[in-house]
């Protein structure tokens, strides 16, 4: 299944009221909208059904913003699913490419002038047009670059290039070769992450090195004996969601270094202590409640440190 996330932030007229720092890029009255598939839908607990806000990027972001921003923007996930062709060629609906999906979102009014957009793809590098056509077997780098370029242009009626943010992607040994974002493509030179880096440079969009943040966080949890924050080699658990949310909000200028994490910390505790997390998917050792809170602080430090490089 193709995994995409779009994060959009509308504009307003005044600056955000965070104390003791330069205001964030996000303005009061702006909305944050996420569009995507598995990662956006929320599988931090290993399923889509868990009610905890830790299960979903948008709910976790909303929780952090409500506790730390004087005028927190609403954070909402909307659906703008692929509506192309089934594998047998039968038509599903209106969109069958990144460009036409973006046009569909703009025309439907889901994207409005001044929005910010953050695009994430954790699917197969050779199936960036989904569900049809099927795999791109040759010229993946060039074809994907073209598809992303057309998507950026399609968004411009609502989202300027300066507000369009891409990100690199992470993986940890999935069986599918083209789900590995740092593996050379069919040209033997470029990787899937190079597609995003090079397109962002060409089109003048922003980019978040999510791959670096997640790699550093993943290395920390593994080396300290806890386990993996990407429990099935692709999907983040609730700690992986936390790293992604922090990296995104930090890139948008929020002063996450000084943020109060108490509401989030309470959610990360065991149910017996009033929290939401009985066990952490991908972890082989269960941290105590105190260790879980320390881990949140350490992962925030890692995100901030990685973002400086």
Describe this structure in words.
Helix 3 runs parallel beside helix 4 (140-155) and helix 6 (210-223) packs antiparallel against helix 7. This protein has a single domain (4-307), classed as Rossmann fold, CATH 3.40.50.1110. Strands 3-2-1-4-5-6 form a six-stranded mixed β-sheet, sandwiched between helices. The chain is 35% helix and 9% strand. The chain has helices spanning 38-41, 57-68, 98-108, 140-155, 192-203, 210-223, 238-251, 262-268, 289-307, and strands at 4-9, 32-36, 75-77, 116-121, 164-167, 206-208. The radius of gyration is 19 Å and the shape is globular. The protein has 309 residues and is an alpha/beta fold. The chain is built from nine helices and six strands; from the N terminus they run E-E-H-H-E-H-E-H-E-H-E-H-H-H-H.
Distance between the termini: 32 Å
Helical fraction equals 25-40%
Largest sheet: 6 strands, mixed
Kindly give the count of domains. 1
Tell me how many strands there are.
6
Calculate Rg over CA atoms.
19 Å
**Class inferred from helices and paired strands:** alpha/beta
Spell the H/E element sequence: EEHHEHEHEHEHHHH
Mean pLDDT: 85
Tell me what the CATH architecture is.
Answer: 3-Layer(aba) Sandwich
Strand order of the largest sheet: 3-2-1-4-5-6
Keywords:
309 residues, alpha/beta, Rossmann fold, 6-stranded mixed sheet, 9 helices, 35% helix
In short:
The chain has 309 residues and is α/β, with parallel strands linked by helices. It has a single domain (4-307), classed as SGNH hydrolase (Rossmann fold). The protein contains nine helices and six strands, in the order ββααβαβαβαβαααα.
């Amino acid at each position: 299944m193709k995994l995409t996330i779009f994060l959009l932030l509308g504009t307003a007229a005044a600056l955000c009221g965070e104390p003791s720092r330069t205001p964030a890029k996000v303005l009061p009255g702006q909305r944050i909208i996420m569009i995507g598939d598995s990662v956006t839908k929320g599988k931090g607990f290993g399923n889509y059904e868990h009610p905890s806000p830790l299960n979903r990027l948008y709910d976790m972001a909303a929780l952090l913003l409500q506790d730390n921003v004087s005028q927190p923007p609403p954070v909402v996930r909307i659906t703008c699913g692929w509506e192309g062709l089934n594998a047998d060629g039968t038509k599903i609906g209106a969109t069958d490419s990144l460009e036409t999906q973006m046009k569909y979102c703009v025309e439907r009014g889901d994207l409005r002038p001044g929005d910010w957009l953050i695009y994430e793809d954790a699917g197969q590098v050779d199936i960036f047009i989904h569900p049809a056509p099927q795999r791109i077997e040759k010229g993946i780098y060039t074809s994907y670059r073209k598809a992303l370029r057309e998507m950026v242009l399609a968004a411009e009626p609502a989202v300027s290039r300066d507000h369009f943010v891409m990100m690199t992607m992470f993986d940890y040994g999935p069986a599918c070769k083209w789900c590995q974002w740092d593996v050379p493509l069919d040209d033997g030179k470029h990787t899937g992450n190079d597609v995003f880096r090079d397109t962002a440079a060409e089109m003048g969009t922003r980019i978040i090195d999510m791959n670096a943040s997640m790699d550093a966080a993943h290395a920390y949890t593994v080396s300290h004996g806890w386990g993996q924050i990407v429990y099935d080699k692709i999907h983040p658990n609730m700690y992986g969601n936390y790293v992604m949310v922090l990296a995104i909000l930090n890139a948008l200028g929020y002063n996450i270094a000084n943020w109060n994490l108490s509401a989030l910390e309470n959610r990360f505790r065991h149910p017996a202590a009033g929290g939401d997390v009985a066990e952490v998917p991908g972890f082989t050792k269960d941290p105590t409640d105190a260790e879980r809170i320390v881990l949140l602080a350490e992962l925030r430090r890692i995100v901030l440190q990685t973002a400086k490089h």
